[in-house]
Amino acid sequence: MNILLDYNLNELEKKIVEMNESKFRAKQIYNSLLSGIELDENTTLPKHLKESLLNYVWSPIKIYKTYEGDSATKFLYKLYDDNIIEGIVMYNRYGNTLCVSTQVGCRMGCKFCASTLDGLVRNLSCGEILGQVVAVNKFLGGDIKNRKITNIVLMGSGEPLDNYDNVIKFLEILTDENGFNFSRRNISLSTCGIADKIYKLAEDFSGIILTISLHSAFQNKRQEIMPIANKYDIDTLMKSVKHYEQKTGRRVVFEYTLINDVNDTIVDAKKLYEITYGIRCHINLIPLNYVKERGLKNSTNIEKFKEYLCKMGRSVTIRKSLGSEIEGACGQLRRKQLKEENDE
Length: 344
What we know:
Layout: E1 2-3, H1 9-18, H2 24-35, H3 47-52, E2 56-57, E3 61-68, E4 72-79, E5 84-92, E6 95-99, E7 103-105, E8 120-123, H4 126-139, E9 151-154, H5 164-174, E10 187-191, H6 195-204, E11 209-213, H7 219-225, H8 234-248, E12 252-258, H9 266-275, E13 281-287, H10 302-311, E14 316-318, H11 336-343
Parallel strand pairs: 1-2, 6-9, 9-10, 10-11, 11-12, 12-13, 13-14
Antiparallel strand pairs: 3-4, 4-5, 5-6, 7-8
């Protein structure tokens, strides 16, 4: 079935005209979709059009369960095909940041991450990614005119650049002035380092914050932690990052999860400083969040690691792990609930 949220406004107008309806109906449908108004709740559309639209998927995802944390809410979303994905909204003094997923599962195989435990099931469509924003915005009491989400981070389950076309279309709709009208400066995309797609992103949708999941500056260590490094070595990755930074004029963020006795020595910090030299960047150090299947331990050297980088002139912060108490922090999102239900 076709998902209506997969259409941008221009595409929706063409579809409506093909159905022998007035073009202005497309804007009514578009506003209702982005406001989270269900088809049977819609009072602006005529009955015959609503009946025709039953042939389409109106709401591709539903909030299935919520888990409330200290400064975050984790969501389990059920997709129209009964797959389940997770996401989280984090509440900060500067606004509400929604972490969205781009795939059901993930095939990247990063050793510290729960999302990849079951492998990749399938890509999410543009509308399924957008549906997460719609659902949570409505959950928070917002609509298309009164948006309650201030920032979007593509850091949930899946590798965004492994679902490139759907992600780009999602970003285009997300920033469309006829819709949610997000600023590109309020959107971050995190990638494990698909270098050729980073070059393409710089051409197709520059201006968002590019975040690189680095986690080691040594090629051999990165290969052990992140299998993607076998295809794109660090030199290749850093060239693509440098290109994005120069092309867009935007500072790049490097994410670095510190794992005890793996990547957390001063030698590691020195190498991280060296490979990021000449790139306008910020380094975000991430305490390792617990995933029981992984058996990895959080570093005890985070402060020393940060202190060295700061002395060398790097911009560095230690990320506050919002949502860890509800298994919603970095590296913890997964398909656990679906597996538990199938095992019952």
